[in-house]
Every structure is written in C-alpha cells, then in structure tokens.
UniProtKB/TrEMBL annotation:
<keyword id="KW-0732">Signal</keyword>
<keyword id="KW-0645">Protease</keyword>
<dbReference type="InterPro" id="IPR009003">
    <property type="entry name" value="Peptidase_S1_PA"/>
</dbReference>
<dbReference type="InterPro" id="IPR035070">
    <property type="entry name" value="Streptogrisin_prodomain"/>
</dbReference>
<dbReference type="GO" id="GO:0006508">
    <property type="term" value="P:proteolysis"/>
</dbReference>
<dbReference type="InterPro" id="IPR004236">
    <property type="entry name" value="Pept_S1_alpha_lytic"/>
</dbReference>
<dbReference type="Pfam" id="PF02983">
    <property type="entry name" value="Pro_Al_protease"/>
</dbReference>
<feature type="domain" description="Peptidase S1">
    <location>
        <begin position="209"/>
        <end position="364"/>
    </location>
</feature>
<feature type="compositionally biased region" description="Gly residues">
    <location>
        <begin position="415"/>
        <end position="428"/>
    </location>
</feature>
<protein>
    <submittedName>
        <fullName>Protease</fullName>
    </submittedName>
</protein>
<dbReference type="GO" id="GO:0005576">
    <property type="term" value="C:extracellular region"/>
</dbReference>
<feature type="active site" description="Charge relay system">
    <location>
        <position position="215"/>
    </location>
</feature>
<feature type="disulfide bond">
    <location>
        <begin position="321"/>
        <end position="349"/>
    </location>
</feature>
<dbReference type="InterPro" id="IPR043504">
    <property type="entry name" value="Peptidase_S1_PA_chymotrypsin"/>
</dbReference>
<feature type="signal peptide">
    <location>
        <begin position="1"/>
        <end position="33"/>
    </location>
</feature>
<feature type="active site" description="Charge relay system">
    <location>
        <position position="245"/>
    </location>
</feature>
<keyword id="KW-0720">Serine protease</keyword>
Length: 459
C-alpha cells in the first residue's frame, strides 16, 4: 500500500460553479424537453424531461399550484415529471399542471396532511432505529424500522402509525441497524476515525475547503490524507445531530487547488457542473472510500432519521448501499450534478441496504460556501455567472438553460412567464462516463482511486 502525494496538492474530490436554478415562470428547458403535444392553451401531452431538470420544474409547480400540490417524482422509464395534485373544487389546477408538460396524478393526501403526520411521528415515536419520509409515489409517509425496533418500541411505532388514519403511512422493516458510516481506516483520517471527502468548496472567506459528513466533523477536528499522516485540513463548522449532517473542513494550505470533479477509480473522473436538489426517482451514484461506486435512486426527501446519537432531519432517502468509512462521500448524477453527502443507513453492499444523504444545497447555504474552487476554477465566470450558475465559459450560458422562449409561457406563468433567462445549464461540465460500477469498488482495494490530492488511498 502506498500513498501518492502531488507536490502542488490537488484535492480532486469535486467542485464546480453552483447554479442559480430559480426562474420566475414555469420553464421547460428547450434542449432537454420534447415538444410533443399542443403548443397553445390546450393541455399538452407530458413532455420528456431530463432528470436533472425535474427538481427545478417541480419547485416552480409547487409555488404555482399552492395547497393543491401534493408532491412529485421523476418517472425514469417515461422520462417525465409526475406531479400529484389534490384538486378539491378547483379542477383548474390540473389544467395548469398539464400545461407545464408534466404527467398529473390526482391523490387523496395533501402535503399539509402528510407533513402533519410526520410531525406526529416526531412527537410520539422518535425511537432510535426508525426513519420516515414522504413517498410521493405512494402518496404516503414511508416509515422504516431497523432490527433494533422490537417489543414495546415496535408497538409504540405501530400504534402511532395507525393513529394517523388509513392510507396515510406504511411501515417496513430494514435489515441491520441504522448507523452513521464512520469507521477506522483509510481515506481521510481523524485520530481513529475514517471518513470520505465529499465535494470541494470555497469557504465564505475565500479559502479552499471541502464538505463531509457532520458526524465526522464532530468526531474529530483535524484530518489527514493518510493513516498516521500530518493533518491537512481542520474542521471549521459541523452540524450533527439536528438539522442536517454536514461539516465544512478547511485546507490548512491556502494554496490548495480543488478541481471540479469526482474521482471514480481507474483514472476516471466525473466533472461536477453545479449543485442541485434531489427529486424522487432521480438516478444517483455514490462514491466512498470503503466501497467505491454504488448506484441507485432517490426514494424520499426531507427524511427524518433517528440515529443512536440523535435525530437528524432534512435528509435524502435512497436505495443506494454504503458501509462504514463511506460517510461524507459524494452523491452525484452521471451528468455531473452534486446532490448529497453520505450520512448513514442500514445494510451493506453485499446484502443491499438503504442510505440517507445530506443535501448539498442545504449544506452550502448553512456554511456559507460555494461549490467549486473559486478563483482556481475560473473566478466569477465559473462561480455564479450573472444568472446561468456556471458562467458563459462553463457552458451554462443563455443557450444551456431554459431561454426566454423555453417553457409554458403566459398560459401557465402569467405575466411572469419567460422571465429568468437561465435555469441551470445541464450541459455544463457534464461527463458521461463514471468509470462503471466496478470502478474503485471491491473489498480488497480500499478506495481504488488515485486522487490528485492524496486524499484517497492507492494500492
């Protein structure tokens, strides 16, 4: 086993300019959506849509539909955004949603009702080894209990779920126990702890840093890139448990470079173009120092997980596996969107499991950092640009987003339709190849990744 160092350290975990994803009207990106169906006032057939564009469109529709909006998810097979609505006496909301080019599904439970149910679970059934999140595909709260929830604890959980009423929640058992994926081994080291670095960022004061799991930052303050090595980075702030699981760790050397990519093994990298919110149904890839690459999909948002150390809220629930040492590692999409940081879960990558992730967008906002390398990645042009999120040079300019002409126009967005010239720029810094499922994986290889920074272990 050897540890490779590069004289001018390059922390090649991930980076990129965070994009401004908002827009004043419902905008369907021209480059990514089919133009089937009517273009006028009549309800059009659902448009095909790239998964990366689904969260932004869902967010805009949530604002447009108000209380009638009951969640959404991405149908990967049909390449469509499915929006749940509770129409009540106002069938116009269905017409409005269809004009946005989405598939519309009428459901019984409103978001308010589902959120109220989750609040009841929090107040009456906060039991270690349990978790819950709203599942828009079933229009119910999905409650999960690990193998430690037995006897009186199970009875309490079951009775609380029953009290919510028929059709509001379902319970499932999960193999193993819910735990954070902290371990003692390689990748980034803090004392006897091992975690994985997530994404490079620029801290609010302009210094280079990276994001990792908050429970890693709480466990140790100084982190090295080799077992027993000298520390290369120091925790600046960390949150765990509570409202998230994230930490900002600043490199001790202010000259550290932070390239805009994730190493995926065998010399392969995925360029990271921007940070994005998750959407249920989104296909995602996780990179970690123990198990390398693993993929799956998003199952739920705003999940609450009751770890032995305490309750963490606001997480992304997935069916991606992970193991101890993968904590803090990056969750991203094949086309280069930074989605999350590995928090914890149950199971392993032999029998399978489910893993929860800290949303990157929430972590960035909380610590006051921006995704990417700041001036090293192109300064203002690569950071935010005027509105495009990655600047003209990063490929997210006016032509990459929605454009003035893209979208539903006045029929849905009213006078505001067509405002906001850029939605995000999916094409910026994408990179189709991730190195395959086998890249960097395997028990015998540790990380299997040759990282330009020395932050990961090579063999």
């Amino acid at each position: 086993m050897s540890h490779k160092r590069i004289p001018k350290r390059k922390a090649a975990i991930a980076a990129g300019g965070i994009a401004a994803l908002g827009a004043a009207a419902i905008l369907l990106p021209n480059a990514n959506a089919s133009q089937d169906g009517a273009s006028g006032g009549a309800a059009a057939a659902p448009k095909t849509l790239k998964a990366a564009d689904a969260p932004d469109l869902a967010s805009q529709l949530a604002g447009l539909l108000g209380d009638a909006f009951a969640g959404s998810y991405y149908d990967a097979d049909q390449q469509q955004l499915v929006v749940n609505v509770v129409p009540g006496d106002n069938n116009n909301v269905i017409v409005q949603a269809k004009k946005a080019g989405v598939a519309v599904r009428e459901v019984d439970n409103s978001i308010r009702e589902l959120e109220a149910g989750a609040q009841t679970l929090k107040s009456e059934a906060t039991i270690p080894g349990t978790a819950w999140a709203v599942d828009p595909r079933t229009n119910k709260i999905l409650v999960t209990a690990d193998s430690t929830v037995t006897g009186d604890k199970w009875d309490t959980l079951e009775s609380t779920v029953d009290s919510l009423g028929s059709g509001m929640a379902t319970i499932k058992k999960s193999a193993g126990t819910f735990k954070t994926f902290l371990s003692g081994g390689d990748a980034i080291f803090g004392g006897g702890a091992r975690c994985s670095a997530g994404f490079n960022v620029t801290a609010g004061d302009g210094s280079p840093a990276f994001l990792t799991a908050g429970h890693c930052g709480v466990a140790e303050e100084a982190w090295a890139d080799a077992e027993g090595g000298e520390p290369i980075a120091t925790v600046d702030q960390a949150t765990f448990p509570g409202e998230g699981d994230f930490a900002l760790v600043k490199y001790d050397d202010p000259a550290t470079e932070a390239p805009s990519d994730v190493n995926t093994g065998d010399g392969q990298t995925v360029a990271i173009s921007q940070a994005a919110d998750a959407e249920v149904g989104l296909a995602v890839i996780r990179m970690g120092s123990t198990t390398g690459l693993s993929d799956g999909e998003v199952l739920g948002l705003d999940a609450t997980v009751n770890y032995p150390e305490g309750t963490v809220t606001g997480l992304i629930q997935t069916n991606v596996c992970a193991e101890p040492g993968d904590s803090g590692g990056s969750l991203f999409t094949q086309d280069g969107l930074a989605i999350g940081l590995t928090s914890g879960g149950s199971g392993d990558c032999t029998v399978g499991g489910e893993t929860f992730f800290q949303p990157v967008t929430t972590a960035l906002a909380a610590v006051g950092a921006t995704l990417g390398a700041g001036d090293a990645a192109g300064g203002e042009e690569a950071g935010a640009g005027e509105e495009a999120g990655a600047g003209e040079e990063a490929g997210a300019g006016e032509e990459a987003g929605a454009g003035e002409e893209a979208g539903v126009g006045e029929e849905v967005g009213g006078e505001e339709a067509g405002a906001g010239q850029e939605v995000g720029g999916e094409e910026a810094g994408a990179g189709e190849e991730v190195g395959g499922e086998e890249a960097g994986a395997g028990e015998d290889t540790g990380t299997g990744v040759e990282d330009g920074s020395g932050l990961t272990e090579t063999h």
